[in-house]
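dumping this here before i forget
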Amino acid sequence: MLKQIWPSFETQQAEIFSNRSALSWPEKLNVPLLVMHGGRDSSVKPQQSLRLAETLQQLGKAYELLIYAQDNHSLTQNRDDRDRCIVYWF
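structure:
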């Protein structure tokens, strides 16, 4: 799927990921953020969200971090709580 979205993905993977990663530009995040992550996410390591939260904390940004320790990338095991938290956040 990545090659369909970015035809140059194989040769520009690092640049694409860097441009899309909030870890590369946290100072530009000027709205409160709800960061949710599954502890067993096989697509994105939970450490990414932990690093983002740590950086947001250092920058004095408003955020909330929720990690569902046994859940996956889509948080399907905690769907009801995930959705409730999202609605409440907004």
